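Hey,
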Amino acid sequence: MSEKNHTARSLARHVSGPVYGPATPGYDEARTGMQQLDRHRPDAVVEAADTGDVRAAVAWAARRGARVSVQLTGHGLGAGMEGGVLVLTHRLDGVRVDPARGTARVEAGATWRAVVDAAAEHGLAPLSGSSPEVGAVSYTLGGGVGLLARRYGFAADHVRRVDLVTADGRQREVTESGDPDLFWALRGGGAGTFGVVTAMEIDLFPVPRIYGGSLYLDLTAGPGALGKWLRWTGTVPEELTSGVSVVAYPDADGLPETLRGRRVAQVSVAWSGPPEEGPAVVEPLRSAAPVLFDTLREMPYTDSGEVFDEHHDRAGFRGRGVLVDRLDGDSLAALTALTDAAPFMCAVWLRHLGGALARAPRSANAVGHRDAAYALTVLTFAGSEDTDAMRGLREEAAALFGAHTVGRPFNLGFGPMTEAEVREAFDPGAHERLVRLRAEYDPHGVFHSHRPIGPC
């Protein structure tokens, strides 16, 4: 028996859920998420049946000096862990809504779809992201810039409690009154740095319906559309959150005729004011460029995943994010020219920030760079390897905005970050505080993160 399979057999005696070793059927599926680059290669995978399994797995690993990571649900899995124990929490998927308090208790494996559906039964909505298939906990504790962000702020601003298994295998109920430092750090510092989160309690909001969807604009025929979107964002109220993705489609078989050989901007909007007022707010965008597709409509919040209409196919991709205090048309034009000329598939994402995102929350947290006005991400797609050319293009794209860059996004990037890059995602004093707390709560570096805070 190999040492790794011995690890799995040993762990299996301590937990009730399935445990997979490298030679076990189901191991490859268990360690694989949406992100296909740098997958985890653990000695064992624990598919936790309950919080007791999480505690047991962490305690087992800590006693043996092994590392622990949690399989994320969504786009950001990267920098896979070599060896150690990978914990899956997808079985912990309960959602319990308290309509009188306007809150929801969300377990670690629940996706936004489950939270949205449960809240909608009471005319409420969470601060969910653009994709309903993403895990609610990791998204929220990383910051969370969602469809209602400019109206209500970061998702992390509205967390009331976090249930956390720390490196000693202890289950903690982390609240502002009971553990203020850890409560501050978890909200914005991420779900996997200080322990394994098993549940959180969040605020819900009275938004049963929105006006939203996307306009697919032909940038080939209307190259000034991004500039028009940029000027439009300076006029809209906080009830309007929007973003743009830009892709240059090849003239290739298999693509819709309306997309082939065109550079297309998908302008996605979510208007949470009175739904009947939404069309007038969005109307100026319709003249920005020829409209190829139009999916804008009034919808129940349960359909809000249609706003950005993101794909969920497994793929290999990496992103470079930039937070800026302003954008200008010349930099945007240079960015699109750079990405259009790339010999590999790439995309540009822009998100309008500001509004409630710029204001201090009721209870201070670790979220950084609230002064940013826009977030920009350049994505490159690879079959099996993130090449030097891809990394070079991403850095060149980021450099175009150097004069106005205030930092990196912690929650809108894709893929791994180095310790130095993570530092740029927080305000200086906040990062120093996070590093001190990491050393306090995980002094032996039990927890592996693809976005490390402090030495690992």
